[in-house]
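agent> fetching stored inputs for the phosphoenolpyruvate docking request
agent> found them:
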Amino acid sequence: GLPALLGVKDAMSILHDGETVIVDAVGGALVTSPSPEELAQARTRAENYRRKTQETALYLDKDPILADGGRIQIKLNIGGAGQEELAGAKYSDGVGLFRTEFVYMSGQDLPSEEEQYKIYRKVLMEFGDKPVILRTLDIGGDKQCACLNLPCEENPFLGKRALRLCFDLPEVFHTQLRAALRAGAHGNLWIMFPMVAGLDDWRRAKAMLDAAAAELAAAGLAYAKDCKVGIMIEIPSVALMADVVAQEVDFASIGTNDLCQYALAVDRANQTVCEYYQMYHPGLLRLIRFTAEAFKAAGKPLSVCGEMGGDPLALPMLIGFGIYEVSMGLSAVAQSKKI
Ligand code: PEP
Ligand code: MG
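agent> prediction call returned; pasting tokens
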């Protein structure tokens, strides 16, 4: 729940020991050696921020209902089964994005089926009947992990990332799918594939999931038999095919972080081009609106689980597009419910 300031160039050489600075994480500025007036103003802003945050926190356990009676689903983005990750279960409508790659990033060795099963089961049991959307391994790009020893690529965001990597490492993918399906016997599991570029990717991943399910059935093991299966919409080619893919998938979730990166051709992790990373670019909004209309027409659930889902400016617009389900970090839930 604390705002943070990132990407201050040369911070280590600009700053000196013992120097007073203002870290304005909301405004996105670092003020060195501030004047007494600047300090006083910053203190007032900090106090106002604290008061506003306390007022907003009162909305955490409210139901998000529109003036016309429509009920918005607010789900959580989580990265593991730790206490802090699960603390929001009672304030949310489920998990809209379980970033399972963090399970792989924490150790030197690949997590076994049993280790993954226990983590996924813990999350599913905590959320009970509420849906938990487990996103399969999304490693590569900015997310590296020691246990996979991935090759260096010149353009990692456009390279062997996520599903593409899983197709290359079928045993790794198979282990995860088995663990997820088995854990799904203990809750309301939905499985989602990241970095889907089109129907080929979707069908190939779905076939691998079906094979894992068939194997579990043949072995007489308990698993999620009627789990919903969907995709992330985060590559423009699949957003533009939304009307077609909506016929096949059970649901989708728009990953606006990557959709913005790929639609605007701007590396989301490169601060030298961050002014080109425009969340409200009309080109991006057209992709989102087109996707929303396509899924509405097909009668399939669609959510937004990128940062835009918890963005106070974007939220009313998404609802205007007919997207009634958003997923975000716990720190954004109260504010979104208030809106
Ligand atoms: C996204 O791309 O918007 C998303 C939710 O996935 P990640 O940020 O993990 O790439
Ligand atoms: Mg993404």
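agent> quick read of the result: The two ends are 18 Å apart (CA to CA).
agent> awaiting further instructions
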